[in-house]
């Protein structure tokens, strides 16, 4: 296989990887009231990451999930965490995922919404996942130049 064929194969492979990444996102889906490992610090050892392409809202048919969300709420002194696919809104505040939207209310109520779409599983409290794009790129470069 000559270098031109290898380069074409590599380019096609990368295009397919990026299309897959652009069309769907995978998010952690859990509730801390059902499993305490869903709270912070997040322990994803017992959760499967969910594919948001399969998620839907019955009252908004046709709307696709394109982001992940983590909600941290305190109601009457009790903290609860919810991690899920997100359908509406924008990532972070003004597109900056480092910032979360915070709301407070009367009677000791606090809510924080963190929304992201930079990578699969971005709705965790700490990142330990290696990007599949990076792994694919390393494999492809090794294959082409061996």
Written account of the structure:
The protein is an alpha+beta fold and 146 residues long. It has a five-stranded antiparallel β-sheet, with no helix packed on it. A hairpin with a 2-residue loop joins strand 4 and strand 5. Helix 1 packs antiparallel against helix 2. The N and C termini lie close together (12 Å). The longest helix has 21 residues. It is elongated and about 70 Å long. It has one domain: Ribbon (CD59), CATH 2.10.60.10. About 7% of the residues have low confidence. It contains two helices and seven strands, in the order αβββββββα. It is a lipid-anchor; GPI-anchor. Keywords: Glycoprotein, GPI-anchor, Lipoprotein, Membrane, Signal, Transmembrane, Transmembrane helix. It comes from Cryptolaemus montrouzieri. This is Protein sleepless. It holds the Pfam family QVR.
What is the strand and helix layout of this fold?
Elements: H1 3-23, E1 26-28, E2 30-31, E3 49-51, E4 67-75, E5 78-86, E6 101-105, E7 109-116, H2 132-144
Antiparallel strand pairs: 1-3, 2-5, 4-5, 4-7, 6-7
Helix pairs in contact: 1-2
User: How would you sum up the global shape?
Assistant: elongated
Unreliable spans are: 126-135
List the domain count as a whole number.
1
Distance between the termini: 12 Å
What do we call the CATH topology?
CD59
Overall pLDDT level: 78
CATH homolog superfamily: CD59
Strand adjacency order, main sheet: 2-5-4-7-6
Q: What count of helical segments does DSSP give? A: 2
Total number of β-strand segments?
7
CATH class: Mainly Beta
At CATH's second level, what is the architecture? Ribbon
Helix content: 10-25%
Structure class:
alpha+beta
- Spell the H/E element sequence: HEEEEEEEH
Into which percentage range does the β-strand content fall? 25-35%
Gyration radius, rounded = 19 Å
